[in-house]
Specification:
Layout: H1 2-19, E1 42-54, H2 63-70, E2 90-93, H3 101-106, H4 111-117, E3 124-130, E4 135-140, E5 149-158, E6 161-171, H5 175-181, H6 184-206, H7 213-216, H8 234-253, H9 270-283, H10 286-291, H11 298-314, E7 323-331, E8 340-350, E9 354-358, E10 363-367, E11 370-373, E12 381-384
Antiparallel strand pairs: 1-6, 2-3, 3-4, 4-5, 5-6, 7-8, 8-9, 8-10, 9-12, 10-11
């Protein structure tokens, strides 16, 4: 009887063990693909497919060829200045590239990520190569500021072009990491820079540099050549040149007294302030938004306003009439005064499709008997129903 019991137990154990999911990498059994939307700090994003080259190209480069070029250098699969070849199930400590000041300033509330950019902390990942699917997946390890998550870059063929598709997903360990992964302008900038490097290398292989105008747009506006230390700056130069100039001017004006031209138009209660800010976003009313901001210059406020609108659009907001105020959340433990609300966030509904928030590291306070937002929001987050 005892032998029968031991045999059944052994059979049960073998059945359970055989049913377990295979390891992604035997050397790193902690890697996984289990991320859940209903868990805290869930994020997911898809970066638009970027054309690398046409299928019908002069050198006859195939999907396999472009994939082999991509895995020839880690800087083609991750935002880094590292140069080593991509090896499956290999650990890599990502050395950060150079970022424009406007993004550093937008990360003031995400200390861990900013510390990585400034070289104060490391960002370890493990790369996994799937040759059949022509993809490389970067899995974050403990200590990475955006842990826990993964990003998969896949070479695909769409509409006669060889493209790169980038997909990120995960359950961040901290709200700061989650906030960065939900900050669409930064995500787009990160992967645009990686795509530009890969595209430049493919074009070098094709020996057609100069024929494709879009490839020339990947050079900085001052004509400097692309290098491995500084990002291909065209995206910043063409898309954000005005914003960067505004930030420089704002630094100079930061200590100047208020000119008196600004109309401070806050609200009597924090709820009313939240409703007014949602209405401003909904109706694309920058003046209404600006009047509720206490301490930022107009240029910076307008930039943040545009980022929030872009973030919502990227998450699926197309019919702005469906955007409605839900509630505000805040901490009542602020040490800045009785009428100051820390971690002031605004929640909204988008019809019955999803709900979301913008803001978290901001605070509302009373100025001349009106509740004002200390500075503008520059992010959003969405939760599907």
């Amino acid at each position: 009887m005892r032998k029968l019991f031991l045999f059944i137990s052994l059979l049960f154990c073998l059945t359970i063990c055989s049913a377990q999911k295979p390891w992604i990498c035997v050397t790193y059994p902690i890697l996984h693909n289990d991320y859940y939307e209903n868990e805290q700090y869930y994020h997911s994003y898809i970066v638009s497919e970027v054309v690398i080259c046409p299928v019908d190209n002069k050198k006859g480069l195939t999907v396999d060829d472009v994939f082999n070029i991509m895995i020839s250098n880690i800087s083609f699969v991750a935002p880094t200045i590292n140069q080593e070849k991509v090896i499956s199930c290999n650990k890599v400590i990502l050395v950060p590239p150079v970022f424009p000041d406007i993004f550093l300033e937008s990360l003031d509330s995400a200390k861990e990520v900013k510390d990585w950019i400034l070289g104060k902390v490391s960002a370890p990942i493990v790369t996994y190569i799937n040759n059949e699917e022509h993809s490389v997946t970067n899995y974050t390890l403990e200590g990475h500021p955006l842990h826990d998550g993964k990003v998969t870059r896949t070479v695909v063929v769409v509409d006669g072009n060889i493209k790169i598709k980038t997909v990120g997903i995960g359950n961040n360990k901290t709200w700061r990491g989650w906030k960065v992964n939900s900050f669409i302008p930064l995500i787009k900038y990160l992967w645009k820079s990686v795509d530009n490097k890969l595209k430049a290398e493919v074009e070098r292989k094709l020996n057609v540099a100069g024929e494709d105008k879009t490839s020339q747009d990947s050079l900085a506006a001052d004509g400097s050549k692309n290098n491995e230390i500084i990002h291909d700056a065209v995206w910043v130069e063409t898309e954000n040149k005005k914003r960067i100039a505004q930030m420089e001017k704002q630094r100079a004006d930061a200590n100047k007294p208020t000119s008196g031209k600004k109309v401070f138009s806050g609200c009597k209660t924090p709820d009313e302030l939240g409703k007014k800010l949602v209405l401003a976003i909904k109706t694309n009313n920058k003046n209404m938004w600006y009047d509720c901001i206490l301490s930022e210059p107009r240029g910076r406020t307008d930039t943040c306003f545009e980022w929030v609108r872009q973030c919502l659009s990227a998450h699926g907001v197309s019919d702005w009439k469906l955007l409605t105020f839900s509630r505000i959340t805040y901490s009542n433990t602020s040490t800045m005064g009785e009428k100051t609300y820390g971690f002031f966030s605004i929640e909204f509904d988008y019809g019955n499709k999803f709900w979301g928030t913008f803001g978290s590291s901001n605070y509302a306070l009373v100025y001349k008997d009106q509740f004002m937002l200390h500075h503008g929001y520059a992010d959003c987050a969405v939760r599907r129903r």
